[in-house]
Specification:
Layout: H1 3-22, E1 31-35, H2 41-47, E2 53-56, H3 59-68, E3 77-79, H4 88-94, E4 97-101, H5 104-115, E5 122-127, H6 144-154, E6 158-164, H7 173-194, E7 200-202, H8 209-214, E8 219-222, H9 224-227
Parallel strand pairs: 1-2, 1-8, 2-3, 3-4, 4-5, 5-6, 6-7
């Protein structure tokens, strides 16, 4: 029933290898995320051993799935959707990493919650809006350095480990490449002043992940390319 998922992952892994080699990158350094929003848990279980992580957009949906998830499976879960502050506490309970921190207010709220249990080192990425599209979340690139500096200063329980972006909504491969290249160059500049490695660049989805890899992505977020058409979320 789910053999197509296995084959899709094999095909995507091969395309990842090819894209990495075109840019002189090590394919082993590029992680494959299965974006599993609205997908049945049976599909996720069949894919878990072949993926590096899952990505979920909605906190409550992920929380419901994790209640049914086998405790012996340690595949990391990342939050890749916009995080509302009233869901911050639940997000810290459900996810292993939050990719969509885009403001100091949100970062400080996460840090305050972590302080209640004296937890340290919770990993996050800072989301950057490289396309400038108003429909997308993320800090603007011009404010990234200031945001990173303030998160480092005021949020000691958070560990900024990378950057995340969503490619522009266009078929123009040149515009897509420009956005991904821009995130890589921004990351390189942020490294200089922060002293952080900011190793991970989470960029590239089903339609543009090969371009993202060519521009230095370390995590590609693939949903329909792995699981097929996305079912409607049951209310």
């Amino acid at each position: 029933m789910v053999d197509f998922i296995d084959q899709n992952i094999v095909d995507i892994r091969e395309k990842i290898r090819s894209a990495a080699k075109r840019s002189g990158l090590d394919p082993a350094e590029i992680k494959l995320m299965g974006v599993s929003k609205t997908q049945p848990i049976e599909y996720m279980l069949s894919a878990a051993a072949k993926l590096d992580m899952f990505g979920e957009n909605r906190v409550q949906e992920a929380a419901d799935k994790r209640l049914k998830w086998p405790s012996e499976d340690k595949t990391p879960w990342h939050l890749i959707g916009h995080l509302q502050r009233n869901k911050a506490r639940k997000a810290l309970e459900v996810f292993d990493l939050i990719e969509t921190v885009d403001s100091l207010d949100l970062a400080r709220m996460l840090d305050r919650i972590l302080a209640e249990t004296d937890d340290h080192g919770f990993p996050i990425y800072i989301e950057i809006n490289m396309s400038g599209e108003l429909t997308k979340s993320g800090a603007v690139p011009q404010e990234a350095a200031s945001l990173l500096e303030r998160v480092m200063r005021y949020c000691p329980r958070l560990s900024v480990e990378g950057l995340m972006t969503i490619g522009p909504n266009t078929d123009d491969s040149g515009e897509i490449r420009k956005a991904f290249e821009g995130l890589r160059l921004l990351r390189d500049n942020l490294r200089l002043f922060s002293g952080l490695s900011l190793y991970d660049l989470s960029m590239g989805m089903s339609s543009d992940y090969e371009i993202a890899i060519e521009e230095g992505s370390t995590i590609v977020r693939i949903g329909t390319g792995i699981f097929g058409s996305r079912p409607k979320l049951q209310s």
